[in-house]
Each structure stands twice: as C-alpha cells, then as structure tokens.
Design goal:
Layout (H helix, E strand, L loop, with lengths): L1 E7 L5 E8 L3 E3 L3 E2 L2 E6 L12 E3 L6 E2 L12 E3 L6 E2 L11 E4 L5 E2 L12 E4 L5 E2 L12 E3 L5 E2 L10
Parallel strand pairs: 2-5, 3-6, 5-7, 6-8, 7-9, 10-12, 11-13, 12-14, 13-15
Antiparallel strand pairs: 1-2, 4-5
C-alpha cells in the first residue's frame, strides 16, 4: 500500500506532505489532481525502515528536512532532474552507497548526509557552488566526492570538531 497526502502550494503545485505505506519500493506520483508535485515536505518518510528504493519524479524541485531520516534500508534513490534544493538532514541515517546530485543543486546544507554510514560516493552533475560544514557529519571520511572541484568547502565537512 502507498498512500500520499498532498497540500496545494501558492504557485498552484502540490507538496507531498504525508505518507502511509508499507512498500519496499516507493514511486512518488508526478501529478496530483492535474497539477505537478514539486516538493517533498519535511519528515515525509522518516523512520520508514521498510523502504529500499525511492523514485522521485523529475518535476520535484525541493526535498525538505529529515525526508529520509532513519530509512535504514534505503539502498537506491533516483533524484529528479529538476531538483534545486536539498534541506538539512534530508538523508540522515539512510543506507544508500551512491548518490548522483542533479545539475540544479548548487548548495549542500549542513548535516544533509548525517550518519549515512554506507555512503561511498556522491557525484555532482552540475556546478555545485558550496558544500557546508558538517554536510557529511558522521560519515566515513573515505567518501569519493566527484564534480565539486570548484565548490567552496566548509572547514569541517565530516564534523570532526563536534566531539
């Protein structure tokens, strides 16, 4: 079962603001009531340990805070080509090994990948401009970060000073 709850935004698009389900493979619909789905709201899948894969439609531009927090079995996620913004803690405690970040994402917020202990590679397809301190807090320092050669990097990407 996959059941989503929606909220209409000011720009006449929809936000996915709730999820009730028990499926391992989640596919978020691109349209609700004839309008595009553009935002995944905070805590959408928080604690859904049954989820193993998620497909997000290309029309989604924003992923909120803690959306995938605690999705400890999430191994595969396809990010949308129109993605522009990923909020802090979005992928906290998820278990995917690789992630490809679409070209529209220019900034990686603090704690975006907090405690993603299985993460081995992040590839930026565009011109990421800034990766904030603590973006990879609690992750393995051996992560390969590709496509960020010209990005401004925070002074402590892995959170070593947090004790």
């Amino acid at each position: 079962m996959q059941e989503f709850e929606y909220m209409l935004t000011q720009d006449e698009c929809y936000t996915v603001c709730g999820y009730k389900g028990d499926e391992e493979n989640v596919v978020i619909p691109p349209v609700f009531l004839g309008r595009p789905v553009t935002i995944l709201f905070d805590r959408l899948f928080k604690g859904h340990t049954e989820i193993k894969s998620v497909v997000i439609p290309d029309c989604v531009t924003d992923i909120g805070e803690f959306v995938f927090d605690g999705c400890e079995n999430l191994r595969q996620i396809k990010l949308p080509k129109d993605l522009r913004s990923i909020w802090s803690y979005a992928f906290t405690r998820s278990s995917f090994e690789e992630l490809i970040i679409p070209p529209g994402v220019e900034t990686v917020a603090p704690f975006t990948f907090k405690q993603c202990r299985e993460l081995k590679r992040v590839t930026f397809l565009g011109n990421v401009k800034k990766i904030h301190s603590y973006a990879f807090c609690g992750c393995d320092k051996g992560i390969v970060i590709e496509g960020a050669e010209h990005a401004e990097l925070g002074e402590d990407l892995f959170g070593d000073t947090l004790g």
